[in-house]
Structure formats: C-alpha cells, structure tokens
Amino acid sequence: MITVVAGPCGAGKTTWILQELAQMPTPAVYVTPGVGTVPIDATRVTARFPKVEIFHRQPETELLQRLSAGIPVYFELGFQLETDIPLLENRPHRRVALVAQENRDAGWQLWANAVIQGNQSTLDLQAAQMWRAPLSGQVFDPPSLDTFWQELTQGAYGEVHRAKGIFELADGQAFHFDFVNSLPGSAYTELNLPRWVQGRPNRFSGIEVVGQGLDEGAIATTLKDCYLSDSLLASYQASLQDSHSLEVA
Length: 249
Prior knowledge:
This is CobW C-terminal domain-containing protein. By secondary structure, the protein is α/β, with parallel strands linked by helices. The chain has helices at residues 13-22, 40-48, 60-68, 106-111, 142-153, 216-224, 230-248; strands at 2-6, 29-31, 53-55, 73-76, 94-98, 114-116, 129-134, 139-140, 159-169, 174-180, 186-190, 206-212. The longest helix is centred in the last third of the chain and has 19 residues, at 230-248.
C-alpha cells in the first residue's frame, strides 16, 4: 500500500503517519521529499521506529525497488510542494489530506481519498517564508535555548506559524521542539536516541521556521548565541562523567 499524505502547514501530517506506523506489524518506508539537508521529520520517525527505512535523498531507482516489493510506503508532502507525484502516476495509491474544517476547500476534496481533521492553518501562502538551518554538531545551553524558543514563537522575529527543530542539549539528550500557532504552547519530546556525552554529536539536528515577515538574520544570530563553546561543552561532559562514576561507585 502506498499512502500520500498532504495538508496545510502544521496540519499534523507527521503525527498522523507516526500513529499509522505504530499499528503496522511489518517494516515500512517513509519518504519526505524537498527537505534538503534538514530532515527533521525523518529523524523524528527514525528515533521512534528505527526499522522504518527513510528516503529523502536516495536515488529514485532504490525507491522503485521498494514499491515493486510491495513494502508499505508513506509519502509526506510539505505544504509548499505539489501534490501530484510523477513516480506514482501509474501506481495505485491512497491520498490522505489532513485539513482543519476552516481550511477545507474543493481542491482538497477532489485530490484526497480521505480528508482527516487536522490543525488549523492561517498561513498566507503568497507571503509565506521558510527558514531552515542544519545544526549538526552544535550543543545548546538549555536556559538560553528556552529563552530563544519563547522569543521565536511569541513573535520577536516575525509572525511564526510553524516552528520545529531537533536540538542537542548539554546533558547528551536530543529533543524535538514543536510549535503550531493554532495550538496552545509548544511540545517538547525527548528522542529515543543514545545520550551523547563525549565530544560533539555526530548526528543530525536542525531547525525549520515558517511564517511571515521573518527576520531570518536575527533568528540565526540569536540561535548561535545559544551554542556551547568547546570548553563549556567539555566542562559539562566532564561533570556528567564524574556524576556517573560516583553513581557506579
């Protein structure tokens, strides 16, 4: 079964796919086109379901092999992408749209086999900005990161409709931050990944912000102010190792 999932910005597409994967007894494939070097949702899926195969930059021939083998495949389409996929033109597939009642129009009804209630989006697509940045190797001071995130989501750098990111913290944990302006507050989820307590993490982290009138330069500069220097990171990690040694003793 091939499933294509689409919807407005912040509708809850990845969350719906995670719910589907949780009910599947067999391996599956998750495809997330158009994310470049910032595969936030793919990393979230991998952390939750390590056996799910991720496709976002692999050759099309490899994906065709999975499709021919009959492995369940989920395509997640970002709000900025076209909903028609040439690769699937002659292949049976179901189309699922996650759309709030306020955002439903004839286009979604015509495209989708199933329309599911999603989060409301008030984003003006004509004025929308998307800012992405890979952060791999960077580790954050939690209080500084929290201040930055509150400023970001409360409008200090422009009108933010959607923000998400994966951040490495000083204690070795990796967290997924998630903000949708039609929902209360932000969601913070620790990813099921090994704690990284020696040196800089050699795994993906990054941020994506969608909104209008964004001051991208200010976002980038303020975020950099939250990075831990090599000396501070080494100090944090030495303290963690000392604490672990005391616990073992």
